[in-house]
Design a protein that fits this description.
alpha+beta; about 30% helix; about 100 residues
Amino acid sequence: MNKYEIMFIVRPDMEEAEIKNTAEEMKKVLTDGKANMLEEKAMGQRELAYEINKFTTGYYFLYVVEANAETVKEFDRIVRINESLLRHLIVKVED
Protein backbone atom coordinates (compact mmCIF):
# COMPACT_ATOMS: atom_id res chain seq x y z
CA MET A 1 0.00 0.00 0.00
CA ASN A 2 1.28 3.41 -1.00
CA LYS A 3 0.36 6.82 0.36
CA TYR A 4 -1.43 9.24 -1.99
CA GLU A 5 -2.73 12.80 -1.82
CA ILE A 6 -5.86 13.21 -3.90
CA MET A 7 -7.34 16.63 -4.60
CA PHE A 8 -10.41 17.32 -6.69
CA ILE A 9 -12.55 20.35 -7.53
CA VAL A 10 -16.36 20.16 -7.63
CA ARG A 11 -18.44 22.47 -9.82
CA PRO A 12 -19.73 25.56 -7.96
CA ASP A 13 -23.18 25.65 -9.63
CA MET A 14 -24.50 22.68 -7.62
CA GLU A 15 -26.54 22.68 -4.40
CA GLU A 16 -24.58 22.27 -1.15
CA ALA A 17 -26.11 18.82 -0.56
CA GLU A 18 -25.10 17.71 -4.06
CA ILE A 19 -21.53 18.90 -3.49
CA LYS A 20 -21.27 16.95 -0.23
CA ASN A 21 -22.85 13.91 -1.90
CA THR A 22 -20.28 14.06 -4.72
CA ALA A 23 -17.42 14.18 -2.21
CA GLU A 24 -18.92 11.21 -0.33
CA GLU A 25 -19.25 9.26 -3.60
CA MET A 26 -15.56 9.83 -4.29
CA LYS A 27 -14.69 8.72 -0.77
CA LYS A 28 -16.82 5.59 -1.20
CA VAL A 29 -14.90 4.64 -4.36
CA LEU A 30 -11.70 4.70 -2.33
CA THR A 31 -13.05 2.88 0.73
CA ASP A 32 -14.74 0.21 -1.42
CA GLY A 33 -11.29 -0.45 -2.88
CA LYS A 34 -9.93 -1.05 0.64
CA ALA A 35 -8.16 2.32 0.83
CA ASN A 36 -7.26 3.56 4.30
CA MET A 37 -8.42 7.18 4.77
CA LEU A 38 -5.70 9.04 6.70
CA GLU A 39 -7.06 12.55 6.28
CA GLU A 40 -9.95 14.26 4.55
CA LYS A 41 -10.35 17.98 4.24
CA ALA A 42 -13.11 20.07 2.67
CA MET A 43 -11.28 23.26 1.75
CA GLY A 44 -14.38 25.15 0.69
CA GLN A 45 -15.02 27.34 -2.31
CA ARG A 46 -11.95 28.97 -3.79
CA GLU A 47 -11.11 30.95 -6.86
CA LEU A 48 -9.52 28.98 -9.69
CA ALA A 49 -6.17 30.02 -11.14
CA TYR A 50 -7.80 30.06 -14.57
CA GLU A 51 -11.28 29.59 -15.97
CA ILE A 52 -12.40 25.96 -16.43
CA ASN A 53 -15.59 25.30 -18.42
CA LYS A 54 -16.66 28.93 -17.82
CA PHE A 55 -16.30 28.54 -14.01
CA THR A 56 -14.00 30.83 -12.02
CA THR A 57 -14.52 29.14 -8.63
CA GLY A 58 -14.87 25.59 -7.35
CA TYR A 59 -15.18 23.54 -4.15
CA TYR A 60 -11.86 21.93 -3.23
CA PHE A 61 -11.49 18.59 -1.42
CA LEU A 62 -8.29 16.87 -0.27
CA TYR A 63 -7.97 13.21 0.71
CA VAL A 64 -4.81 11.58 2.03
CA VAL A 65 -5.08 7.80 1.68
CA GLU A 66 -3.11 4.59 1.80
CA ALA A 67 -4.21 2.49 -1.15
CA ASN A 68 -3.00 0.04 -3.73
CA ALA A 69 -2.46 1.05 -7.36
CA GLU A 70 -5.64 -0.66 -8.62
CA THR A 71 -7.83 1.38 -6.25
CA VAL A 72 -6.21 4.63 -7.38
CA LYS A 73 -6.61 3.68 -11.06
CA GLU A 74 -10.30 2.94 -10.48
CA PHE A 75 -10.73 6.29 -8.68
CA ASP A 76 -9.03 8.06 -11.61
CA ARG A 77 -11.33 6.29 -14.11
CA ILE A 78 -14.50 7.25 -12.22
CA VAL A 79 -13.40 10.86 -11.73
CA ARG A 80 -12.86 11.24 -15.48
CA ILE A 81 -16.45 10.07 -16.10
CA ASN A 82 -18.08 12.21 -13.37
CA GLU A 83 -19.26 15.51 -14.86
CA SER A 84 -19.64 17.11 -11.41
CA LEU A 85 -15.86 17.43 -11.11
CA LEU A 86 -13.81 20.09 -12.86
CA ARG A 87 -10.29 18.80 -12.16
CA HIS A 88 -8.46 16.23 -10.05
CA LEU A 89 -4.88 15.50 -9.07
CA ILE A 90 -3.39 12.32 -7.63
CA VAL A 91 0.10 12.50 -6.14
CA LYS A 92 2.02 9.53 -4.75
CA VAL A 93 3.74 10.60 -1.51
CA GLU A 94 7.25 9.27 -0.97
CA ASP A 95 8.20 8.58 2.63
